[in-house]
Amino acid sequence: MPARPKIDPTAKLIAEWPLSPAATLGSSMQTRGIFLEIRSRLPSALRNLLHIESRVLTLRLPEASEADVDAATAIVSKAMQDIEDLPVIPREVEDILTISPGERHRWLKTGRLQSAGTRTVKLRGRARKITFHVFDPRHIEDVLDRDLVTVWRNEDAATAAENRRRAAAKAAIKRAQKRLREAPRSARNDRDESSKAKLRGWEDFESDGLLR
Hints:
With about 210 residues, this protein is an alpha+beta fold. Among the domains are: about 1-85; about 150-205. The chain contains 8 helices and 5 strands. The strands form 2 sheets. A 3-stranded antiparallel sheet has the order 1-3-2. It has a two-stranded antiparallel ribbon with strand order 4-5. Strand 2 (about 50-55) and strand 3 (about 55-60) form a beta hairpin. Helix 2 packs antiparallel against helix 4.
């Protein structure tokens, strides 16, 4: 993640754009993500003019700078028109909903978290690209407002408990079946041992000459 540019205390404030709760969803990570997204839309020569101060985007012009602030202002103002519809990326979803990556993957797989599509980006300084799901901010807001995370966690806990119960019952059945298979073998062994004990008596008769 790019380092946040330091704000020059002598820089002149040109414009500012407060970020609404519908855009940030109460997340500092989402706020930072919006800042980075809009900053990436600026020409490289103008990117250091944009800052995030609390939950407000500001455009500041350092002294003696001849940067085209009108162009920067126009780009940011246009981007802000649909900022509340900006797709939410995975790490922002985890921060907004306070969930783990494992929960996000599991709920995405079961359809409880609804994907709004995928995005492919190239990691900075690396050749490979990564593809990940993005999410509609209104869907994430709905999950947050209805506290569906608590509902889903309770459902997962109930499912896990049921799976453990079924696994224990299945293991008990297997143990019972094993005992049933071993019972006839044990009975045969007992009969064999009994027969051997009876045959040992013949040795006594033979030693006494009674079988001659």
